[in-house]
């Protein structure tokens, strides 16, 4: 009988949900499409976000997918038995169709009948507010003692970025047995009961905004995710994801290259697991169009590629090896991702170049790190200068995370704040250089060209007048998994002036090119970025270009609203208020402007009233190309840091607003509908930002706020929204009473604790000294307690320490009558050093420090008496 594999789980999962009416959706790219809130695709639900939010109508209401995912949060832990960067998420999705009552028993059915798991070994977690899920699991046959409730920290999923869909979830755990690592929330970290989470059922009901406010989505949805790697662990009774057939072929390839045997040595096993994960991760990142670089997702690729190279060298691999591992990944994953096989050569070329580049600097850079560590040890210091680490990055290309990892291996740490400060200083210098060179290039008439663009005729710009046109294809160039296409004429608006680039379709007799973004190259070419969705597209063919007109309409409403907002801000705040930046998209507008303080509510109301009055006036929106001098005479608003030509485009909204602009606009202000200002906030010294919505986006925003009002009304127990304010006043009064009572009790407890500590003071020479450990106290807790003990002592020295999340906070207090004899800053420095840390300060009466070795806290506190005695003798 053939042994079951991860591929069987994959196939059975797809078949299971297809049998229940789900449409198979292919995996989206690791580069999120039109989603600036996340760097990479981290979850299977991301490509369905527009459907969850109700912004787009889905073709189907049920889907199943196997999604490529990448998470950067655990890169430095990859190498142990459980952490990954790249993984595949098995997911099924309901878009306003089935919900908890259907998906819970279905999930149990697939887990037991198809994965072969024993129901008696399943454990379930649910959100502590989810009584419905609790009842459904009971009905399905899971006993109450194996259903556990937790709060948002464990049983609330999402959003995947800062904003987006989210909701309570229910997780399935499988009890593998003693000796397996435990991931169950309520168990201690060293538990070995083996309850491993393998499936997450998310009941996607809310949208979270940038302020953390959650509002109900238009419909109830289901989003489940089961990592196929973990599914293999529980289904086949394995100890680690790296023991699955998804990784073993790649590990065996790494074994052959390194000439070591997996399972014979922990350090070698760790390195082989790093190579296996990072080989998959780098292969798929490059497949989807990422190339190594120094920013964003390009930096992620560079970071893990160089981490893999370093661990390869630790295994004794002296030659280039990443390309060989790519072959192993392609062999294992190619049947599911055929594009791997066609793109393998390019992937190996990209990673081979990166390996060659880093190999030349690894030896020199490692020597510099060794020198830094030796110097630190000689000083008796456990921290490495952030500025020196930045020099290492700038000179040798060492990712700072790799430097930190190498330091941790030697018991040292990096001054990360110093590193970030040095990095920001260099960025500012680079920005200054960039501004200088752009001005030079413009003066010399230099444009941004490259490759064949210098010989391609300029694109005729049609976006101000058309959303469809016919034009010849002049160029199509592959760029990773996507392509760049140029037409002789284009109705697509290229990103610029704050407005996002258009999307849509370019259709030829033999194929369809889906335009996912449009940009301008600075040399008169409009660049359409996207992919060939059907057939083939060739240079020279006559194509029909079609802009996604509804999306364009939403964007141009926001652009016209931006002009009204700019003029209204000048009217209300003064003519000195001017635009500092903007985002104009189909979803919203953001407007940055200079103003020294927050705009008050009355001013916001006045600005909003002006904009909506002008909208209801239904003013004509016109544009014309005029000489710059005429534009000045017309009083057109212009950006002082922009460079304009002799001829400029002036957009007028009636007689109210005139502004230089190259974007697309409505024909009348009445097309805006309602305009709502959602927020006003500071974004830097003297700079503010307004976020606003127009048209349908404003109605959506308003409905979300009304839903929030209804939700809050129910949650605080008010009968109607009209009673909400009164009910909130009552709740706040009750909370204040409880707060005062809690504060009184805490003061009483602190006084009692201080009295007990003071009663154990030890006499050192002629003064009282208290040195004690306090269980699970933060540094702020210790500060308050030190003050209370000093007050009880009247005269003396107080040293208190604790252990918090692996750190050892230490606080020293000296009563004022003794500061001429004992200095708190000097004391804490010596005491913290005994716990592997440091501290200090200039205050003689109060100082803080911290250690890195919790086991040494007791010895450090005992050392305190000797330190005080020594201080007294030297005075």
- Portion in beta strands: 15-25%
In which range does the helix fraction lie? Answer: 40-55%
The largest sheet, given as strand count, sense and whether it forms a barrel, is: 9 strands, mixed
What does the average pLDDT come to?
A: 87
In quaternary terms, these chains amount to: single chain
Compute the separation of the termini in Å.
Answer: 85 Å
Tally the helices. 22
* Structural class category: alpha+beta
Count of DSSP strands: 32
Backbone shape: globular
Q: Would you kindly provide a written description of the structure presented here, covering whatever features stand out?
A:
The longest helix is centred in the middle third of the chain and has 41 residues, at 339-379. The protein contains 22 helices and 32 strands. The termini are far apart. The protein has 875 residues and is an alpha+beta fold. Helix 3 (100-114) packs parallel to helix 4 and helix 11 (339-379) packs antiparallel against helix 12.
């Amino acid at each position: 009988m053939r042994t079951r594999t991860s591929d069987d789980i994959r196939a059975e999962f797809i078949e299971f949900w297809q049998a229940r009416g789900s449409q198979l959706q292919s995996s989206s790219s690791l580069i999120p499409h039109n989603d600036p809130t996340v760097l990479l695709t981290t979850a299977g639900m991301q490509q369905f976000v527009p459907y969850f939010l109700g912004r787009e109508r889905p073709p189907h209401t049920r889907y199943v997918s196997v999604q490529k995912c990448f998470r950067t949060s655990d890169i430095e832990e990859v190498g142990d038995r459980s952490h990954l960067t790249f993984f595949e998420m098995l997911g099924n999705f309901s878009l306003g169709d089935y919900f908890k009552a259907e998906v819970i028993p279905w999930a149990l059915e697939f887990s037991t009948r198809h994965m072969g798991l024993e129901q008696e070994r399943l454990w379930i977690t649910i959100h502590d507010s989810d009584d419905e899920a609790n009842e459904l699991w009971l009905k399905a046959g899971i006993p109450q003692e194996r259903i556990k409730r937790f709060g948002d920290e464990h049983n609330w999923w999402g959003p995947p970025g800062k904003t987006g869909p989210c909701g309570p979830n229910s997780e399935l755990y499988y009890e593998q047995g003693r000796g397996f690592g435990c991931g169950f929330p309520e168990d201690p970290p060293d538990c070995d009961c083996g309850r491993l989470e393998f499936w997450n059922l998310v009941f996607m009901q809310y949208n979270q905004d940038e302020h953390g406010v959650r509002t109900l989505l238009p419909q109830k949805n289901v989003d489940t995710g089961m990592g196929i790697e973990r599914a293999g662990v529980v289904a086949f009774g394995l100890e680690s994801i790296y023991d699955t057939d998804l990784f073993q072929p790649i590990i065996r390839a790494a074994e052959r290259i390194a000439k070591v045997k997996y399972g014979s040595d922990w350090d070698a096993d760790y390195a082989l697991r790093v190579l296996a994960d990072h080989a998959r991760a780098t292969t798929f990142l490059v497949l989807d169009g990422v190339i190594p670089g120094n920013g964003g997702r390009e930096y992620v690729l560079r970071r893990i590629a160089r981490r893999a190279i370093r661990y390869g060298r630790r295994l004794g691999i002296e030659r280039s090896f990443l390309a060989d591992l790519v072959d192993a990944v392609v062999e294992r994953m190619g049947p599911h991702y055929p594009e791997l096989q066609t793109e393998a050569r390019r992937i190996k070329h990209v990673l081979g170049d990166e390996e060659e580049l880093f190999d030349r600097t690894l030896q020199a850079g490692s020597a510099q790190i060794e020198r830094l560590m030796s110097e630190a040890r000689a000083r008796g210091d456990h921290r490495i200068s952030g500025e020196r680490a930045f020099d290492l990055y700038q000179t040798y290309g060492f990712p700072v995370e790799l430097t930190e990892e190498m330091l941790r291996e030697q018991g040292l740490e990096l001054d990360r704040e110093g590193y970030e400060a040095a990095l920001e200083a260099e960025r500012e210098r680079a920005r200054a250089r960039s501004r200088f060179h752009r001005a030079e290039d413009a003066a010399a008439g230099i444009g941004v060209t490259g490759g064949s663009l210098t010989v391609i005729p300029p694109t005729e710009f049609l976006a101000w007048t058309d959303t469809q046109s016919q034009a010849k294809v002049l160029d199509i160039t592959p760029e990773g998994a996507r392509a760049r296409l140029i037409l002789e004429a284009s109705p697509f608006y290229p990103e610029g002036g704050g407005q996002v680039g258009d999307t849509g379709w370019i259709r030829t007799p033999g194929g369809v090119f889906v335009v996912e973004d449009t940009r301008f190259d600075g040399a008169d070419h409009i660049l359409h970025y996207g992919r060939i969705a059907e057939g083939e597209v060739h240079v020279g063919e006559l194509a029909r270009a079609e802009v996604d007109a509804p999306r364009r309409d939403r964007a141009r409403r926001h652009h016209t609203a931006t002009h009204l907002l700019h003029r209204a801000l000048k009217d209300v705040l003064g003519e000195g208020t001017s635009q500092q930046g903007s985002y104009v998209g189909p979803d919203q507008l953001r407007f940055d402007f200079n103003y020294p303080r927050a705009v008050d509510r009355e001013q916001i109301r006045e600005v909003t009233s002006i904009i909506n009055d002008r909208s209801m006036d239904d003013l004509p929106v016109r544009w014309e190309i005029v000489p710059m001098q005429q534009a000045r005479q017309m009083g057109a608003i212009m950006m002082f840091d922009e460079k304009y030509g002799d001829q400029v485009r002036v957009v007028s909204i009636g007689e109210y607003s005139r502004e230089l602009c190259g974007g697309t606009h409505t024909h009348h202000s009445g097309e805006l509908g309602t305009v709502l200002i959602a927020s006003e906030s500071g974004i830097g010294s003297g700079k503010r930002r307004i976020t606003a919505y127009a048209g349908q986006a404003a109605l959506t925003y308003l409905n979300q706020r009304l839903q929030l009002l209804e939700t809050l009304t129910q949650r605080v127990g008010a009968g109607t929204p009209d009673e909400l304010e009164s009910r909130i006043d009552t709740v706040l009064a009750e909370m204040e009473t409880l707060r005062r009572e809690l504060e009184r009790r805490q003061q009483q407890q602190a006084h009692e604790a201080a009295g007990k500590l003071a009663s154990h003071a030890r006499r050192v020479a002629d003064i009282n000294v208290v040195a004690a450990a306090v269980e699970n106290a933060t540094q702020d807790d210790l500060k308050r307690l030190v003050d209370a003990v000093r007050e009880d002592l009247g005269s003396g020295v107080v040293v208190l320490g604790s252990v918090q999340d692996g750190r050892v906070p230490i606080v020293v207090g000296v009563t004022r009558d003794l500061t001429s004899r004992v200095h708190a800053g000097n004391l804490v420095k010596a005491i913290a050093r005994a716990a592997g840390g440091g501290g200090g300060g200039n205050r003689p009466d109060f100082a803080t420090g911290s250690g890195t070795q919790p086991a040494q806290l007791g010895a450090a506190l005992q050392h305190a008496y000797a330190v005080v005695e020594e201080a007294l003798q030297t005075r």
